[in-house]
Amino acid sequence: MTTTRAFRCEDLFRFNNINLDALTETYNVSFYYMYMSTWPDYFKVEEHPSGKLMGYIMGKAEGEGTLWHGHVTAVTVAPEFRRRGLGRKLMHSLERTSESVFDAYFVDLFVRVSNSLAISMYTRFGYSVYRRVIGYYSGTEDAFDMRKALPRDREKRSIVPLEHPIYPDDLEW
After folding, report:
1. 3-170 adopts what CATH topology?
2. Span 100-114, mean pLDDT?
3. Sign of CA dihedral 131, 136, 137, 140
């Protein structure tokens, strides 16, 4: 049985088993602190009964009007704990927060177009490709902006795919 709890400052010194993975985007310490202080409801960790960290999710709320949404900045599970439903559990936590705390219209995330495993996982979670962002990852690789409508978006307008790709400078947020 795992525990989902708020990410704490000391977790920054305990999550190397999660972050030292080629598929995980890592950030500097001040970036994590900013998320913990600004969007604490969105920064969660999965902890094993032994105390070992198994995975985490961090996100934020952003946008205006019908573009008000929850954003998944990072979600990752340590390789030794994958395929146990922890990614789904973390994503569901962020979606619930987006819906119940922030009353968002949708949740979005960016994923490398080459990361077919993640794209498949997000699709199983109910996300769909909204648009392609050319050169999103350091100008070298495109991203898919994937979205999932929340109950506030009754007509599901937030997930109607765009017909053409955009560039990072064209992103709204």
Report:
1. Aminopeptidase (3.40.630)
2. 97
3. positive
